[in-house]
Write a structure and sequence with these properties.
about 30% helix, alpha+beta, four-stranded mixed sheet, single chain, Glutaredoxin, 9 helices
Length: about 450
């Protein structure tokens, strides 16, 4: 889901209002809402994917005011610094899309700060309890949590670029907690995004490996902060924010804990419901991945039957592979003995392989430091297409081999591979522990082998 990878609620996503509907003569439904003196029409569309749902955090219900006075359904404050004077300020809200399309954030209210940096947002419709985005000059975001009972007061310094960090928010404790979380997480996320761009532009393998290691460290730092925040703010609505920086499978227990602790207040929300459904689906997939097909015999002492597209199965020793990398250097599978290794059969022309590559990259980034390696065997015939695909998909591990013989690849023939993508996972002793791993099933196995 996450992603991840995907646009973050803290960055540049856009939101839709929950204004009344109007039925047009052609039968289509359109939203009608007023942003100050402008009337804007927005067709219902854009259904978010699972990854983006992890970032939207649609909550339900309301709370009482916490130590503030004045009417609710208002956000006001003062932005300091030259970047906070006489600038546009928008309040944005998320709405799910329909018919397989992505959701988006669109402004539901807008104003300008005065020459002293003061602003006041007064949405015309009551706000439901939710995560909202405040966007300054369309490029500088921050996250707030509120509903129609809240009157938020915000003081913040507007940076030249990037997320508005270290805001002081009063009026709702959860809003201040969300600000504290994103003030740490977003700068780390921005650094990691820039580092990945640098990896794409790196000129040699050494530079890419160094940047990859730094990226892994940053990802670990973000995950550590997310877990720490959840632990220290148990039960707070703000705890749903850190879930966007955690992968589901390796953190399944954390996801369940957050959902359980917030279910009484937030269980009716779309995010809570969809995430619960996703977790149930992931658990079912994990269970299915551990089930081994067997051939019934009289005494039941049968060996697991190899699945289609594999000459070898769980418990077999993985045959040696010796083949050249793109530079002509021979690489041996046995040189990786002592590590958990994924043998990945793929090709640049294989669409399913290319779509699976991002999941393999994420697994490598997460577990490489714990002793995980990937040995990629390409069934390409043209070295240029092969190496271009390695660069485009950011397959940053060094063990890439190919004999440029297509389906006649010696390793593929030895392993009985007749369709790709195909994977074989071997343990530190070179014994096959799983095959046919896709998506989160790989992470599930790595969790058991490299806790």
């Amino acid at each position: 889901m996450i992603g991840s990878k995907t646009k973050l609620i803290g960055t540049n996503m856009r939101s839709i209002n929950d204004a009344p509907l109007k039925i047009r003569r052609d039968g289509k439904i359109q939203d009608i809402y007023t942003m100050k003196n402008r009337v804007i029409f927005q067709l219902h569309s854009f259904l978010p994917g699972i990854g983006s749902l992890l970032l939207l955090l649609v909550l339900a219900g309301g709370c009482q005011m916490e130590g503030t006075t004045g009417p609710g359904n208002i956000i006001e404050g003062t932005f300091s610094g030259a970047n906070g004077m006489n600038v546009e300020v928008e309040l944005k809200k998320w709405m799910q899309g329909q018919e397989g399309k992505r959701g988006q954030f669109i402004a539901i209210d807008a104003t300008h700060t005065d020459s002293n940096g003061h602003f006041k947002l007064e949405p015309q419709r009551p706000l439901p309890m939710d995560f909202y985005q405040i966007m300054v000059e369309k490029t500088k975001p921050m996250v707030v949590i509120m509903d129609s009972t809240k009157h938020l007061f915000i003081q913040a310094t507007i940076p030249n670029a990037g997320y508005i960090a270290d805001a002081d928010i009063s009026g709702f404790k959860a809003a201040q907690e969300a600000s504290e979380y994103y003030s740490v997480a977003m700068p780390l996320q921005d650094r990691m995004s820039m580092m990945r761009v640098s990896m794409q532009q790196a000129q040699n393998v050494g530079q890419k490996q160094n940047l990859s290691n730094q990226s892994i460290e940053l990802q670990s730092e973000i995950s550590t902060w997310a877990k720490k925040f959840i632990e220290e703010h148990a039960g707070s609505p703000a705890c749903l924010g850190p879930l966007e920086h955690l992968d589901i499978r390796p953190n399944l227990a954390t996801f369940k804990e957050v959902l359980k602790s917030t279910s009484a207040a937030l269980g009716g929300g779309a995010y809570h419901q969809v995430l619960s459904s996703v977790i149930q689906g992931e658990e079912a997939k994990m269970q299915a991945a551990t089930n081994v097909r067997t051939i019934p015999t009289g005494n039941g002492a049968n060996k697991p039957r190899p699945k289609k597209n594999s000459r070898y199965t769980v418990g077999d020793e993985a045959p040696e592979i010796v083949m050249n990398d793109p530079t002509g250097k021979p690489r041996k599978l046995s040189d990786l003995r002592g590590k958990v290794v994924l043998i990945d059969f793929w090709a640049s022309w294989c669409g399913p392989c290319r779509r699976e590559n991002p999941a393999v990259v994420r697994a490598y980034q997460q577990y490489q430091s714990k002793g995980f390696e990937i040995f990629s065997v390409s069934l390409d015939k043209e070295i240029g297409r092969w190496t271009n695909a390695i660069a485009q998909d950011q397959l940053e591990w060094p063990n890439h081999v190919c004999d440029l013989k297509g389906w006649s690849n010696a390793a593929a023939r030895a392993y009985g591979v007749n369709s790709i993508p195909h994977t074989v996972l071997i343990d530190q002793e070179g014994t096959i522990v799983a095959t046919h791993l896709r998506g989160g099933a790989l992470v599930s196995q790595l969790q058991q082998l490299l806790p």
